[in-house]
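Q: What structure does this chain adopt?
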Amino acid sequence: MKILLPFVFELLVASLCLATPSKPNVVLIYTDDLGYGDVGCYGATKIKTPNIDRLATEGRLFTDAHSPSAVCTPSRYGLLTGRYPSRAGLFAPLWSHSPLCIDPGTVTLAVVFKNAGYATSCIGKWHLGFGSGGMPDWNGEIKPGPLELGFDYFFGVPVVNSHPPFVFVENHRVVGLDPADPLVWALGAPNPNTREFTQKECEAKPGQYGFSGGKAAHALYDDEQVMTKLTEKAVEWIAANKDKPFFLYLATTAIHHPFTPHPRFKGTSGAGIYGDFVQELDWSVGEVLAAIGKAGVADNTLVIFTSDNGGMPNSGGMKAMELGHRLNGDLQGFKFDAWEGGHRVPFIARWPGRIPPKSTSGQLICSIDLIRTFADLLGEKLPEGAAMDSLDILSTLTGSPEKPAREELIMAPKEPTHVGLRQGDWVFIPAQGPGGFKGNPGFAKAGNVNSDFTPAGKLKPGAPPEQLYNLKNDPRQQVNVINQNPEVAARMKLRLGRITSDSKKEKR
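A:
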């Protein structure tokens, strides 16, 4: 018996080690303006996305996943804080003169990982502002920013690839800036150092603020090389941090306009330059997956791939639709909208041994839920009031729970008047129309149908002042059934009012 005890003890220790795996690495790929129908595993036929499709084959694809907002900046706020962006009064994008919209000291997704002993990095598009008030010091230390919100390292685009200053920022400073040639922000400031592309708000346009100077910094920023540079940085960072648990937040500039794929991707898709840019994004995903494999950590790395909002009816998107591609699949609406196309997005998760391969989930989830999910997974207790709108969806990611973790969701479009509520299969929107782009562009070209609108996308006279849809019966939101279900609308309107009235404004 005495001889057997050490052997039994060793077996017990070994079994406990197997049952309690080491902390998983996490790579969160947060794409820009990628629609529900933009990749192959979600139905795209004009665009080839083998690497993203591979993620779905090796993991789980979600069919009812949503971004915290139908707009880029608010969506990122919700992702990092676990709070509805409407609580902070955030509905529109921020620009180069905007201060940081998250107070330093806030418990963010990055803080959760950092407190758990992870190396943390943000590579790619930031778009949450810099500084504490007024114009950030673009020629000095640009802070507070990502490093004050829990990230150990930042490299990327400070605003968005369609707006100035068109430079890279690393940690607290503009990359390659010559102190003798500073960036100068002024109305109508011309800058011949920045290449122009369709739908790119270049500095020389009349009536717009831009940056002059900074020639050396601008020279390092080539629109057609940006995704390559960000991908290289992500790959390098994974290799450098493979020996400890790490969290990589890779926020891609693709596929936001201007559509500037590397020349090797031009003409490779069947959906024009829009599709070409999606295919470059897919290449980037492949490079990141290869880096995880090369680092020898694939089996203990959770990869999440999703988008900040739905596809956008800009010139590239319109052309793609003309070529037969459906940005948001069969969903109604586009980016900025309260309709499903504005915020229902691709969401794929791969975690070998924990998430069943080739699996699909139709449960309602939102990327706002990630902060609480990881806090609970890592045993990090959130302070009272932190991540108040986030739910633990680990069982939804890895298992098949009968009861969904999330039963309702606030839907935030560009217009505050259209903040809506999802409850089960029901969607309530307290106003007419989508609440996004004026004029409802893309409606007719996408072949959408809605009982409140003409085929040309014009609101019909006498259309109800509010909207109610049942997604189980009408997933394309073609028929507003509010007149047939007044009691459902009244109940949801009351609930929505309670949520919004309880929301306390945060400091911007």
